[in-house]
């Protein structure tokens, strides 16, 4: 299989979290988005949560109006968010599970149990010309369910893999990477476009970036965290370099 260019989507939610800590307008997530694009981001991701704890409606509108790269609108599958997405027309909508009490998106969507709830919302987004992606656990059966729902894209949840990497648990790491590899191969084989993300760092991104079926990674926390020390453009260049090294190595 030829190895195509791996896209980097930069998630800017944490910039909005810092802004909201003081209630003003600084730092501006839209400015961060433009800086990220200048540093090599192929797209920008922003999650408008039901409780608006970080990104706000006005951020989404400003991003949509000013970005020249694709905007990936992360959202819960609710009527309110579907309406907002259809009004905004981002390039893509990534449907995620959302619980008020969670700190971040903790698991993939239950697309088997949630089929009746998800199907009409996926259809409405697709009819508006928005590319729908489902944030899911990396399992072949889930790939089948995503395809049955008519979603063209899945984003594989890399959270368990990244936790194993942080714990230094080699057996769990190998197990989680094998799950991602199997799901990516199965999903691509049945025609899905495969993305991945959650928890990735420059230390853990390599083996995932090397999987040829994966076309896009969405990364936020590690980039904004590193930006504190080296600045956002450098953090993005470092991540890009780690991705490209792994990708090029896998093509040899
Ligand atoms: N992809 C999805 C669907 C997410 O919900 C998140 C977290 O907002 C990410 C990717 C990025 O995860 P992280 O911030 O840990 O890099």
How would you sum up this structure, described in words?
With 252 residues, the protein is an alpha/beta fold. It has a single domain (7-250), classed as TIM Barrel (Alpha-Beta Barrel), CATH 3.20.20.70. Helices cover 50% and strands 16% of the residues. The chain contains eleven helices and eight strands. It has helices at residues 13-22, 29-38, 57-66, 79-88, 115-127, 140-148, 159-167, 170-189, 205-209, 221-230, 232-251, and strands spanning 7-11, 43-47, 71-75, 92-95, 131-136, 153-157, 193-197, 214-219. The chain has an eight-stranded parallel beta barrel with strand order 1-2-3-4-5-6-7-8, surrounded by seven helices. Helix 6 links the parallel strand 5 and strand 6. Helix 6 (140-148) packs parallel to helix 8 (170-189) and helix 7 (159-167) packs antiparallel against helix 8 (170-189). The longest helix has 20 residues, at 170-189. The radius of gyration is 17 Å and the shape is globular. Bound molecules: pyridoxine-5'-phosphate. Pyridoxine-5'-phosphate is lined by residues 11, 13, 47, 74, 94, 96, 104-105, 135, 155, 197-200, 218-222.
- Write the CATH fold name: TIM Barrel
Tell me, briefly, the overall form. Answer: globular
Q: How many helical stretches?
A: 11
Count of DSSP E strands?
A: 8
CATH architecture annotation = Alpha-Beta Barrel
Task: Estimate the helix proportion, in percent.
Answer: 40-55%
| Number of structural domains | 1
Look at the structure and name the CATH superfamily: Aldolase class I
Nearest-integer average pLDDT: 94
* Largest beta-sheet details: 8 strands, parallel, barrel
């Amino acid at each position: 299989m030829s190895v195509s260019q791996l896209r980097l989507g930069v998630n800017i939610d944490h910039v909005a979290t810092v802004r909201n800590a003081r209630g003003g307008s600084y730092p501006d997530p839209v400015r961060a988005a433009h800086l990220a694009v200048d540093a090599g981001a192929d797209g920008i991701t922003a999650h408008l949560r039901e409780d608006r704890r970080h990104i706000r409606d006005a951020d989404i509108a400003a991003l949509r109006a000013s970005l020249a790269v694709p905007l990936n609108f992360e959202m819960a599958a609710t009527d309110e968010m579907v309406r907002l997405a259809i009004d905004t027309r981002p390039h893509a909508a990534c449907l995620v599970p959302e619980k008020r009490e969670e700190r971040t998106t903790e698991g993939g969507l239950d697309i088997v149990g949630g089929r009746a709830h998800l199907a009409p919302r996926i259809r409405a987004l697709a009819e508006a010309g928005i590319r729908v992606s489902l944030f899911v656990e990396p399992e072949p059966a889930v790939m089948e369910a995503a395809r049955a729902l008519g979603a063209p894209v899945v984003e594989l949840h890399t959270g368990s893999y990244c936790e194993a990497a942080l714990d230094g648990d080699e057996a769990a790491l190998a197990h989680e990477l094998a799950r991602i590899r199997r799901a990516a191969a199965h999903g691509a084989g049945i025609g899905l476009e495969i993305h991945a993300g959650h928890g990735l760092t420059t230390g853990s991104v390599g083996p995932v970036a090397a999987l040829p079926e994966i076309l896009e990674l969405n990364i936020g926390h590690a980039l904004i965290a590193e930006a504190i020390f080296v600045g956002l453009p450098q953090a993005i260049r470092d991540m890009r370099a780690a991705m490209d090294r792994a990708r090029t190595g896998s093509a040899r």
